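Narrative of activities, Objective 1.

The group set out to show that a structural description can be obtained from nothing but a protein's sequence at a throughput compatible with the screening campaign. Below is one input-output pair from the validation batch, recorded exactly as produced.
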Amino acid sequence: MRILIVDDEEVALNSVRRLLKWRGIRSVDICNNGKDAIEKIRQTDFDIVLLDLLMPEVDGLQVLEATKPYRPHTEFIILTAIDDIPTTVKAIRLGAYDYLVKPVDNDLLFLAIKRAYEHRGLTVGLSAAVQDGKKKISEAFKDIITQCPRMLSLLSYAKIMAASGNPIMITGESGTGKELVARGIHRAGPMPKGPFIAVNVSAIPAAMFESQFFGHAKGAFTGADFPHQGYFEQADGGTLFLDEIGELPVDLQSKLLRVLEEKSFYPLGSSKPVWVDVRVISASNKNLDKACREGSFRLDLLYRLKSAHIHLPPLRERVGDVPLLANYFLQEACKHYSKDVCSFAAETMDLLIARDYPGNIRELDQIVQNAVLVAEADTILPQHLGMASGAPSLFTRHLCTIKENDEEHLFYTLNKTKGDKKHAARALGITLRQLQRKIAAAKNNPRWEKILDDI
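Output recorded for this entry:
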């Protein structure tokens, strides 16, 4: 996150800059007059500008009016002593995101900055996706397979928010790809060469929490024969991904909150603090806002973890990605199991598209793997999925139109299914009676005499 502070009072400039850096915002520029501020903003792509209104020669409203058209995605937050409704309305109409009256509470200021930065990321991401519906996914998110406009917008937003280094919360049902997105955020963030440490919070016993997260010194407890680095120290200079954060017991949440606030901790059995620079990305399939209302999750911890929020849609809301994902999993499964299965029958793909997937992408992956294992031919048929199929769908009939009257394709399928007419009919997307009529019509063709004899 890059912030510019514009104020003609030197004390105010340095005070706000010191406060921002104390809160972990590394890139902070200052400017003490409106004229220079206009030039700086036009030349540099700041994320947020904290702008005073009362300045000699060129005031804050003039700065806003002269720069907002050139930097539509830069968010302006007015910090001023003028508590006046007409002035507030004019600033908002000129494009200011928020208007705060001095003296400003620190928590209120950071909440405004957080919301403004999140709004900027969202507008930039949506704008990028709208301008180019076929926009390539950023290299940082190359592991994510999608052509869904909603997912492309989310990834554009994630890329913008990743650059700040602030904590990010990823929510969504199990199997929607939260860890893949977290790894992409790490690669797109300010410390991509640092470690990425993934931790399943629900798998750590409460008694082992401090040792696992903060480490311990030699002799800290019985069996501690060697010093141990905890997850925070292992992730120093990189990213700590906390999966299933909603499962963390309430009595341990305060310990995690303290480390996030102070950026330091004491390993068990040690009297020396350890300081770390760690970006925290957390994930949950629970409704944490509801958990806060019920008292099972601390609201102050949620605010610390949720500087930005990304919610991943379930697979049933992005069905257009099912063929893409299924074919990718098919290739990966063939490599893993040394199988030569090259495609899905059209009817098989219909069944995959129509499925609900309570387990989301993870469930689709498992279905395809199992189908590859049991497939006898080079095409995955409906029975390989363990699913029953009804009459051929419009999608199936459309795909089969070109070849369903082609004798070569007909007998190729019969040969591959070893004469099993029911199996062949399902693969072709036609009824058994239609298949029998086609076979009867082809009996006068000497080219197929041997195949027909075998059938």
